[in-house]
Amino acid sequence: MGTRTWVLINSGRVLNEILAKRTKFTHDRPWLPIAGGLVSRDLRPFLKKAADWKAGRRLVHHLLMGPRSKDHGSIIEDASLGLLLAYLDEPEAWYLHNYRYAVAVIYKIVTSSPLDKSGPELNDLQEVTRTFLEVISSTFIDFFPQLTLLPRFLQFWRPRWESVGTFHYNVYKH
């Protein structure tokens, strides 16, 4: 599809060998110029090519599996208690409480500080998540990344997605 090369294989043995022994050569993340470039400002490590995201992967692996991973149980326990209390206090805001729970756990693991965001700040974080997930592979530019080689004045999509990226950056900057 688009700029990707497709190869059809009619042998299970060959397929297993390729998947088991040659994935380094056959599998890589596609370049997503909108989601990975303009919206993320090339800062989200999971959207980079395999060679470029090794440092980010190492950091995330250390955060999730390193010596501090023993504290994750207590972090989740504390966030769960807060979630249950929020359910009792405001049952009509169920979706917001669930979102706060997920963000609070990730935020505490990554920053080692509790999530102390106001309602509007949480709404901004939720908007970042929503728009980011919507943009992944939803634009024709992500399927035809060669279009980013056009001169900037012909890239009519650029201002819209750059403004979304600026919004994302400003939310996380604070």
Describe this protein's structure.
It is a single chain. Helix content is 61%, strand content 0%. The mean pLDDT is 82. The protein contains 9 helices and no strands. It has 174 residues and is mostly helical.
Short description:
By secondary structure, the protein is mostly helical.
Helix content: 55-70%
Low-confidence stretches: none
Oligomer: single chain
CA distance, first residue to last residue: 39 Å
Q: Given the C-alpha coordinates, what overall shape results?
A: globular
Radius of gyration from CA coordinates: 20 Å
Give the helix tally. 9
Structural class: mainly alpha
H-E order: HHHHHHHHH
Chain-averaged pLDDT? 82
Largest sheet: none
Question: How large is the share of residues in beta strands?
Answer: under 5%
State the total count of DSSP E strands.
0
Question: Which terms summarize this structure?
Answer:
174 residues, mainly alpha, 9 helices, globular
What is the fold's blueprint, element by element?
Elements: H1 12-21, H2 23-26, H3 33-39, H4 54-65, H5 72-89, H6 94-111, H7 119-135, H8 140-143, H9 158-173
